[in-house]
Model the fold of this input.
Amino acid sequence: MALTSARALFVIAAILGVSLQANAQLSTAFYASKCPNATNKAFEVVKSWIVKDRSMAPALLRLHFHDCFVRGCDASVLLDSTVANSGEKDAGGNKNSLRGFEIIDDVKAKLEAMCPGTVSCADILALAARDSMLVFGGLNYTVPLGRRDGVSSFAWEANNNLPPPFADFNMLMSLFSAKGLTTKDMVVLSGAHTVGFSRCSTLQQRLYNFSSTSSTDPSIDPSFVPILKSKCKFGSTGIIMMDQSKTTDTWDFNYFSNVLKGRVLFQSDDAIKRTAEGLKLVQAENKAGGPFTADFGASMLKMGNIQVLTGTSGQIRKNCRVVNK
Ligand code: HEM
Done:
């Protein structure tokens, strides 16, 4: 028994050691000598896009999430499919849904002009997520750098690793814990749904074809159902803002109060309060002047470290959409 627990401790320490080491390879000063103006330039380019269309900030935040959850933060989500519909971009949760690729291309082109072959697409994604939300308003956190770019992208991996909108608590937790993230990370990061929008097509099943006993998901607040149905009619191809509690899209903790009231868009949003642990976390984040933004930054830092390629692994792509020849 003692030997077993000692072994278990050793394994845990070894795992922790490896992950700490991996994190230690990223550094906020990574480009300080290689391309001193890289992070300023990336900020400037992202800012110019967000000033024109602030709805692109949530899109860039999501792009980084969808990158990190599929073979780590290696910019695999940016690769164009080489065989029709084979890459991550073409996976169910991504196709006709992810936005912002042209912004990443623009940042990349300008950084390549300044410092050829130096700044990875994976780092650009991480910076763009933070910088866009900084310009959007209210969110800021540190982004360590030094990720390198992967060379493969598979739709089936995205299908298996990205949480679907119908996920229940267990499914969410198995997908997040597979990435080394905790229940708190899962709850806090779901708070990203305080901004941005969804396609109405994503809500069709929950609103009109839920189950054999109830055409609409009974977990939705009954007074919220007509609102959702008027904004997303049967068969609608329109869009709907994630946070229906306000008219302007802002970074705030409203999402958690919407979760508690049953006034959220997806079953996955509703699911985060469906265990005692989840409920406690949702309640803790639902506070004016509370921990949400700081907690979100801390969880983004962890998410941005998932399975990063560093050192001589991978490559620095010249064009984020294609692997170097
Ligand atoms: C917890 C599991 C999650 C599920 C099931 C989920 C699912 C979704 C779905 C279905 C959409 C709408 C897609 C569409 O209709 O086109 C969406 C949008 C969005 N998600 Fe999530 N998401 C999750 C977690 C996250 C996380 C961790 C982040 C960021 C850290 C995030 C950020 C966003 C943003 C910002 C949008 C709006 C995008 C836009 O305006 O273009 N989501 N999510």
